[in-house]
Structure formats: C-alpha cells, structure tokens
Design goal:
A hairpin with a 2-residue loop joins strand 4 and strand 5. A four-stranded antiparallel sheet has the order 5-4-10-11. It contains six helices and eleven strands. It has 177 residues and is α+β, with helices and mostly antiparallel strands. Helix 4 crosses helix 6. It has one domain: Phosphatase 2c, domain 1 (4-Layer Sandwich), CATH 3.60.40. It is globular. The chain is 28% helix and 31% strand.
Amino acid sequence: MPNIADIAANETKEQASGATAVVCIVRQSGASRYVYAANCGDARAVLCHNGGAVRLTRDHKADDPEEVNRIEAAGGFILRKRVMGVLAVARSFGDFTLKQYVTAEPYTTTTKLDGTSEFLIIACDGVWDVLEDQAAVDIVRQCAASDSKRKLAGKALVQAALTSGSTDNVTAMVVWL
C-alpha cells in the first residue's frame, strides 16, 4: 500500500514539472506543399529555404515583451527573466502551480514549400541556446552530400550544441523535404 507522504510528494513534483513542444506537419494540398508548425515554449522549428534559415516558430521566453504584458495582465510578474522568478518560459504544458500566468496556447504558422525548401530542423532549447538558426542550417547542409551523412544530421547538431557548451536538453531531428 502506498505511503500518503509519497503520494503527496509525487503530486507536488507533477505540479511543479512541465514541458515544451514543437510539431510540424508537411501536407500536400493540390499542387502545393505546406509545412504547418506549432510550438509551446522554447522548442523551435527552422526551415532551410534556398540555403537560408527561416524560423517557423516563436520562442516563448519569459522576458519577451508580449509575454511580459500577458503575464502582468494576469497579475503575475517577471523576475530575473523568469515567470514569478521561477520559470524561464512563458508557455508550457504542465507547470500547474504557475498556470494562471503560463499558458499552453501554441504559436502556429503555415509556410508554403517549394523546390528550394531543403529540410526542417526540429530541436529543443539546448540546441538553440548555443546555435543560431543559420549556423544549425549550415551544419545540416554539410550532411546533405550523401544518404549516409543525411542520417547523421540530427546527431551532428546535437554534437555541435554539446561542443558549444550547451547545458540544457539537447535533442534534434532533421526532416529532409
């Protein structure tokens, strides 16, 4: 039989934990292809279009002026670039103790793809904390020479982030278009 203290501790952990997310859907509509992107938090999607980086999502950092206004309108505050002095992102799933100020409403975009749209990078903040969008695109483009190298593109991004000193979650996926 579970101990009541253990149950209470687990409930507290669940209320204090949260997650960010980014999703992309590539869809054919008639003769055109589109990528639909959505994110909540600081996970990010970047499209390589004609060799250049195109950000498809928006980082929901606590110090973003729009997020500050939304949080303050709800009665909250930002301290040391953190919601209520605690959380660095202004949008997330979970984080129930801050739910009055931290929403899970996503940012969404629709982008038409063409023959110069090469790939998508979908990665968490540990990658983007240390790599600019274009630098990440350049790393992946170096992997485009062969199928075997393409399979290693996500791993190359993770290694570049770690080498650059990332101390956060470091996960990356590359979707070739």
